[in-house]
Amino acid sequence: MRASLLHSPAKIETNPLDFTDVPDPVPQGDQVLVRVGVCGVCRTDLHVVDGELPAPKVPIIPGHEIVGRIDRIGVGVEGIATARTARRGRRLHRRRRRIGGRR
Ligand SMILES: [Zn+2]
After folding, report:
1. Please, which residues have CB less than 5 A from ligand 1, an ion?
2. CA of 46 to the centre of ligand 1 (A)
3. pTM of this prediction?
4. Cα–Cα distance between 54 and 93 in angstroms, integer?
């Protein structure tokens, strides 16, 4: 995936963000992977980039106000489905209803 990666905080005027390819994360345990549709940038992100917050964990991809779709889920996730899994579930449900002779 493409991302703006911060390796080391520095004033934004020095272009500290590295727009680059990074491996797609793999959700573990109770995590979900959200495919980001849009992402806002708030003042907190700028504080992280500028180094105005103590010891950010780097490298980091700034941006925590997102809207997206759940793309993958960890093995421990319950009660949440990806869009693909939800569509497959609805098809199976319809097929079972037809096999059972009920509409
Ligand atoms: Zn924020």
Report:
1. 42, 44
2. 10
3. 0.69
4. 51
Q: In total, how many domains does the chain have? A: 1
Residue linked to tokens 């992100």: 45
CA distance readout (Å), 51 to 13, 43, 63, 65, 83: 13, 12, 15, 19, 38
Question: Which of 50, 49, 22, 47 shows the shortest CA–CA distance to 36?
Answer: 22
Where residue 62 sits, what CATH number does that domain have? 3.90.180.10
Over residues 23-67, the pLDDT tens digits come to: 999 999 999 999 999 999 899 999 999 999 988 899 999 998 999
Domain containing 58 equals 2-99
CA of 65 from ligand 1 middle (Å) equals 6
Looking at residue 92, the DSSP 8-state letter turns out to be H
